[in-house]
Design a protein that fits this description.
The chain is of the alpha/beta class and 276 residues long. It contains eleven helices and eight strands.
């Protein structure tokens, strides 16, 4: 299939959990999810903040690390810190502590989904400060731009990370967001490789149904089953020097209804076929 390493982002193994709902926690145990990811072939795993808190309560951080090690998971992604641009988030301390204990590869932060005006100097200062904290625990910090937020495109994200100018800070490039923002693969190929912290693969139909948020949460498709030029996108990202781990983020009503092992296997198989 592929010699590339793949990371199952948090929603890919979360079962019936839905982003933006009142309780975003997965109904599945962390052990069940990690075992499914490892059995499918993933060597990376993403964990959402509410699930991190629940898992720490159940297993302790040392127990979580053991579960990852037992299933050959070596690339850990933690998400999602929001409201960091206001001088700190209530999630920050918990995530940083976990990142250090688990040997996390990177931490994801979000933009302002209410699309309010932002001051680049202030945002760059706060992003650099948080990147320094992430670097201090051995991780990198990646901001994920979203086409309905104040950071809509890869270019908006680059403005921020270039202004912050911290080696531990960079971008999370989810191809759903670049495609829905109309960013051509040739533009992705121009992104400096040093600024890419993570990449997420997925697919979708050509037409958006409902709002962008509804479309991304309910109607993503497995890689190769939608309209995206994933071969061109992967070629462009490789041109930057990116070599993985490649995140796979599948979000849909259909995917959430699958047994977790079947969901993980389908996500891995479809992405690996393209990367191979």
């Amino acid at each position: 299939m592929t010699t590339e390493e793949l990371l199952a982002t948090c929603w890919t193994t979360a079962g019936a959990a839905v982003p933006g709902s009142e309780d975003e926690r997965s109904p599945l145990s962390l052990r069940e999810r990690v075992e499914a990811a490892g059995a499918a072939g993933f060597t990376g795993f993403g964990l959402l903040y509410p699930d991190l808190v629940e898992a720490e309560r159940t297993y302790g951080l040392a127990g979580i690390r053991s579960i990852f090690e037992d299933n050959r998971i070596r690339h850990i992604e933690l998400e999602f810190i929001t409201d960091w641009w206001n001088g700190g988030s209530r999630h920050t301390a918990v995530v940083l502590k976990a990142a250090e204990a688990l040997g996390a590869r990177h931490i994801k932060v979000g933009p302002d989904v209410e699309d309010r005006p932002w001051d680049i100097d202030s945002w760059a200062r706060e992003f650099a400060a948080l990147a320094a904290q992430a670097g201090g625990v051995g991780a990198r910090l990646g901001v994920e731009f979203l086409p309905w937020s104040n950071l809509k495109t890869v270019h908006d994200g680059l403005r921020l990370v270039e202004a912050a100018d911290h080696p531990a800070g960079g971008l999370i490039i989810d191809v759903w967001h670049t495609e829905r923002a109309g960013t051509a693969p040739a533009e992705l190929a121009k992104v400096p490789g040093a600024y890419i912290v993570g990449v997420e693969l997925d697919d979708a139909d050509a037409q958006v149904v409902g709002t962008l948020f509804e479309d991304t949460v309910r109607r993503r498709r497995l890689c190769g089953e939608g309209s995206f030029d994933l071969t061109g996108i992967i070629t462009a990202l490789r041109a930057t020097g990116w070599s993985g781990p490649w995140g796979v983020e599948i979000l849909s009503d259909e995917h959430r209804a699958l047994p977790v092992r079947e969901a993980a296997e389908a996500a891995y198989r479809s992405a690996a076929a393209l990367l191979g």
